[in-house]
Design goal:
It is a single chain. By secondary structure, the chain is mainly α. The protein contains seven helices and two strands, in the order ααααββααα. A two-stranded antiparallel sheet has the order 1-2. β1 and β2 form a beta hairpin. α1 runs antiparallel to α2 and α5 packs antiparallel against α6.
């Protein structure tokens, strides 16, 4: 009886210690990520101050470390020169399908057909339906494979197809998240140094 209590106590203390260690590790990674972003920012700023046209290929490589979207030199300059804009670089990359820089260069705006609220609502609905349908098919394949399939090869195939459908469903849900987040990104206003220079 006492041994059982001691083992539970050790397990509890170990779990608490593990959680604390994990949280500490995640916080350390977050601060390291911010330092890396700052290093990239400084490096790009140096290239821009030196000779932007000549160093554009190096700027693209540096930007690609934190942004999947291909940026023009004008966009790079805007993100570097505009206060707080660099914080939105990842959002600008993730929401590439939906947003672009405004003409005044003081905010983001919806691009192309997504300027229409109706189109955005249809896209929301389509992505939710895609998630529900694809994830449901994946779960159905899993359940069917578990209960009906007896051969090893067919079971493996069933599980693989189930995972593929679920993954496509998750991708649709992630895309819906990007579309939802684009609303707050578009509402953000900046005091653009470049816009002031153009005036």
């Amino acid at each position: 009886m006492e041994l059982d209590v001691v083992s539970k106590l050790i397990t509890f203390v170990g779990a608490i210690f593990g959680i604390a260690l994990t949280i500490s590790h995640l916080l350390a990674q977050k601060s390291t990520g911010k330092l890396k972003k700052f290093d990239i920012f400084k490096e790009i700023k140096t290239y821009l101050d030196d000779s932007p046209d000549k160093n554009f290929s190096a700027i693209c490589v540096a930007i690609s470390c934190i942004c999947k979207r291909e940026l023009t030199l004008q966009e790079v300059k805007w993100f570097i020169m505009t206060p707080h804009a660099f914080d939105y670089l990842k959002a600008y990359s993730d929401q590439e399908r939906y947003i672009e820089l405004s003409e005044n260069m003081d905010s983001f705006r919806y691009s192309g057909k997504y300027q229409s609220k109706i189109v955005r609502n249809i896209e929301h609905l389509a992505l939710v339906l895609a998630y529900i349908v694809l994830a449901s098919i994946g779960v159905f394949i899993f359940i069917y494979t578990q209960s009906k399939v007896e051969t090893l090869l067919m079971s493996i195939s069933g599980y693989i197809f189930g995972i593929i459908f679920i993954m496509f469903g998750i991708m649709a849900l992630i895309q819906k998240g990007h579309l939802t987040s684009s609303k707050s990104t578009v509402q953000r206003k900046f005091c653009s140094v470049m816009a002031n220079e153009q005036d």
